[in-house]
Design brief:
The structure holds two protein chains of two kinds. By secondary structure, chain A is mainly alpha-helical. Chain A has one domain. Chain A has four helices and no strands. Chain B is built from eleven helices and two strands; from the N terminus they run H-H-H-H-H-H-E-E-H-H-H-H-H. At the A-B interface, helix 1, helix 3 and helix 4 of A face helix 1, helix 3, helix 4, helix 9 and helix 10 of B.
Chain lengths: 139, 278
């Protein structure tokens, strides 16, 4: 680990490095959205194929069943082949995409030796993980 | 309505919202909730859940494109995301506490404000003064590619920007929108960051901000896969189409039309909210 604020990289190397980071983040975001959309489409085909003529109404809020509300439940029921869970898994991958970007940034700032921004990024990451898994801590 | 027809109509509607949102630069997210609640009679909480998920999709998709152009400032984005994610967490908790009619009224006001912001011409003052020492300490001052090469910029009033960002995050979490307009206000107006950098960095931040409230929404049961599926796929494809066309068309009159649509939806949300119709 580099000591804080002393870069071993020259300014031009620094610029090159940051450009690589930006490109990697761009690919990560694009890949994540694409993967999420594909999983949602697979689930959608199964869902629309199974009961296309059933009646739907979202007029009153009922909340979702337990297996669609937690990371654990979604993953388990999706791999059991439930159409709605597969769509939800796709949406979960979509939510995970920005989180993956933030995790990547932690390492990118660490390699740059920017300890201050490593801390900032870790704060953001903990807020995100708390949001996604916080209900487990309470339950 | 049966599943097939409902899903198809919702997909088409979202496709249009995403297309017009990207084409006019006003974002499709802001019209999704009124579209779902007013025209598809969807409960406000389900609508907010579906809208938020779509916001993540479009933001991540377009952020990828902007990053390669070198306008986004990752450091400014990362630092301000502390404010927006904490705000988003608060907003998401508030959606369960605040009555639906109040959320609808706030939504109406935000719609009218977004339309107003899109009509305003911005004065371009570039006062060269000493940057905020905080900005210097946080290594925020940077440069971006301009017609005449790299242009340097300084960042001012960081605490004020941070505060507005917290509010933008809270609104995003409360309403299931990207609240890009308010994020741009924080960066462009308060922190004096060049417009191009503000808009692209704001867009870059929207996905992370939305992800912070999405977790809470998910555990509360606001995200219904059958509803979010056509909305997300529609908005994503629509906005990708919109960005492709963007370069070729004159969007001035289209922007006006879309602003009028936003105003009408805002008034409708206000009337329904005040009338307690949610």
């Amino acid at each position: 680990m580099n000591p804080p604020d002393t870069h071993k990289l020259s300014p031009s190397e620094m610029e090159w490095y940051e450009e690589q980071v930006e490109n990697t983040i761009a690919q990560l975001l694009r890949g994540g959205v694409l993967l999420a959309a594909l999983v949602v489409i697979v689930g959608a085909v199964l869902y629309l194929g199974s009961s296309p003529l059933a009646r739907v109404s979202y007029r009153t809020f009922q909340g979702e069943p337990e297996h669609l509300k937690s990371v654990h439940g979604i993953v388990r029921s999706a791999f059991a082949g439930q159409a709605r869970s597969i769509m939800q898994l796709g949406l979960l991958l979509l939510i995970a995409t920005p989180i993956a970007r933030v995790i990547f940034s932690v390492f990118a700032f660490a390699i740059e030796g920017d300890r201050m921004y490593v801390i900032f990024t870790l704060i953001v990451l903990s807020v995100l993980l708390y949001s996604l898994f916080g209900s487990f801590l309470v339950a | 309505m049966n599943v097939l027809a409902f899903t198809f109509l919702l997909w088409i509607g979202s496709l249009f919202a995403g297309f017009l949102g990207a084409l006019t630069g006003l974002g499709g997210g802001v019209v999704l909730v009124p579209l779902l609640t007013i025209f598809f009679h969807v409960d406000l909480r389900y609508a907010i859940g579906a809208s938020l998920v779509s916001v993540i999709a479009t933001s991540s998709g377009s952020a990828a494109a902007y990053l390669k152009e070198g306008f986004s400032n990752i450091r400014i984005g990362m630092f301000l995301e502390i404010a927006t994610t904490l705000g988003a967490l608060l907003g998401a908790y508030l959606t369960a506490k605040v009555p639906a009619s109040v959320i609808a009224i706030i939504f109406g006001v935000v719609l009218l404000y977004s339309a107003y912001m899109s009509r305003r011409t911005r004065p371009r003052e570039l006062a060269v003064q000493a940057p905020d020492p905080i900005a210097t300490k946080l290594k925020m001052n940077s440069s971006f590619p301009d017609t005449s090469g790299l242009r340097h910029y300084n960042v001012y009033r960081v605490p004020a920007g941070f505060g507005v960002m917290f509010g933008a995050g809270a609104l995003s979490g409360l309403l299931g929108i990207g609240s890009g307009a308010l994020k741009v206000v924080a960066m462009d107006q308060s922190m004096k960051i060049p417009f191009k950098v503000s808009t692209t960095t704001s867009n870059f931040m929207i996905g992370v901000t939305a992800a912070a409230s999405a977790g809470v929404y998910l555990s509360r049961g606001y995200i219904d896969p059958s509803l979010a599926m056509p909305v997300m796929l529609g908005v994503l494809i629509g906005s990708l189409m919109g960005t492709r066309v963007l370069v070729k068309t004159k969007t001035k009159s289209l922007r006006l039309v879309f602003s009028i649509v936003i105003v009408l939806l805002g008034v409708e949300m206000l009337i329904k909210g005040i009338g307690g119709k949610f």
